[in-house]
Amino acid sequence: MTDPLARLQELQAGDLPVHGGRTLAYVYDGGDAEVDRIGREAVAAYAGSNALDPTAFPSLLTMENELVGFACSLLDAPDGAVGTVTSGGTESVLLAVQGARDARPDVREPSMVIPSTAHAAFHKAAHYFGVRAVVVPVGPDFRADAAAMAAAIDDTTVLVVASAPSYAHGVVDPVTEVAAAAAEAGIRCHVDACIGGWVLPYAARLGRDVPAWTFAVEGVTSISVDTHKYAYAPKGTSLLLHRSSALRHPQLFASADWPGYTMLNQTMQSTRSGGPIAGTWAVVSAIGDAGYLRLAGEVFEAVDRIVELVSATPALRLVVPPDSTLVALTTDGSCDPFTLTDELVSRGWYVQPQLAYADQPASVHLSVSAATLRHLPDFATALADSVAAARAAGPVSVDEGVVSFIEALDPAALGDDDFDGLLAASGLVGAGADGSLDLPTRMAPVNAMLDVASPPMREALLVAFLDRLSRPVRPATEVPA
Ligand SMILES: Cc1ncc(COP(=O)(O)O)c(C=O)c1O
């Protein structure tokens, strides 16, 4: 038998690095190897524990309550506020929407008013829970347009949403105005601080200019904050806080309508691994308040220096000056943003392409970590070299035939044959006889192709792509019957 751990190491070598501060999406790195070790050991120690039953695993209940208590202090939560540890930002958002819907059984066709920059998790919640998303375009500064959102509230609205900050642009919505409009209409207001919840409070303490967005703002009824982002905890936890237990109540679920144990849950999961909870608790305890203040100083110093670098590079510009730790930059006509992304990736800096949307151009997203700071001289060189290489490579054009092929497809009815036809026409992603896909190493031509497609077509193509990726790999030798 091959050593499974050796095999894991071999497999993991093909993944993005989780540590090192150069992966500027998906992962968040505090840069302290000892804290990471503590987190990993806590995850391992609790991997088999089950938070399903707090009476059976009371240590997990203690950890959850302490984590929520820490967050209550950060987020100016009043006495009586409560919270839940969920599996991630999307689950926190889903539960905020589900709770808002179920608190209003009187509304037959519920809706929520969200800014166009709200995270896609709200669209997922709309899809899952039948809550129509009323999407209000943001203003020219990429922040929610509070007056337009207030005007969009009607008898069906059960929730109003603001972000602190938005993922795509890293700016904080005018929460005071949005929450006031919600409160005036007697409607819940959720602040999605999945990104900013653990870092913006420290930014304010460092004297940075952060607009009000916490429970200190009247009318804010719930806040989501991801510990697996800027609390630098292992993956698998977020917190959803409510201003009162009455507001959380519709989120709690019990079913005694079967012959087994009474199912009793705060989250969408029932069995919940203790690993992520213990890992998060251990990391938060190890870093502590003073540690997070220092890490916030580091991440914001890194952000400021990246902003300076971008501003000093003629081919680049910021989409908008960031309020938080996320930077969106775009390019002038001399440099293709998707090629720039590939060039940075090839130099060991993972940045994330963002497709053009509405009147917003394609851009490059950077989620900056505290650990990024110490590598900035290298980033500066990589950025300059990548810009030069992208300029030399010239624009990425999408073949006219491929554009027409995509335009002729119906996203609502995209089938396997259409997808295969597109793969063949574009020649971008090779497919084996068994339907398996060979991933391209350079993504710019793929992104350029997606960029010309409408959002529904992008969704349909990527769903088809995911379906193809997700296929069973059967064991090489038959398992004896
Ligand atoms: C603002 C915001 N909300 C929600 C989410 C979803 O979080 P997750 O990926 O943990 O489900 C994200 C993820 O980046 C986010 O930035």
Automatic annotation (TrEMBL):
Pfam families: Pyridoxal_deC. Keywords: Aminotransferase, Lyase, Pyridoxal phosphate, Transferase. The keyword Mitochondrion does not apply. It comes from Nocardioides currus. One of its GO terms (molecular function) is pyridoxal phosphate binding. InterPro entries: GrpII_AminoAcid_Decarb, PyrdxlP-dep_de-COase, PyrdxlP-dep_Trfase, PyrdxlP-dep_Trfase_major, PyrdxlP-dep_Trfase_small. Belongs to the group II decarboxylase family. Sphingosine-1-phosphate lyase subfamily. The keyword Transmembrane does not apply. Its cofactor is pyridoxal 5'-phosphate. The modification N6-(pyridoxal phosphate)lysine is found at residue 229. Gene3D superfamilies: Aspartate Aminotransferase, domain 1, Type I PLP-dependent aspartate aminotransferase-like (Major domain). PANTHER family: PTHR42735, SPHINGOSINE-1-PHOSPHATE LYASE 1 (PTHR42735:SF6). It comes from the Bacteria. This is Aspartate aminotransferase family protein.
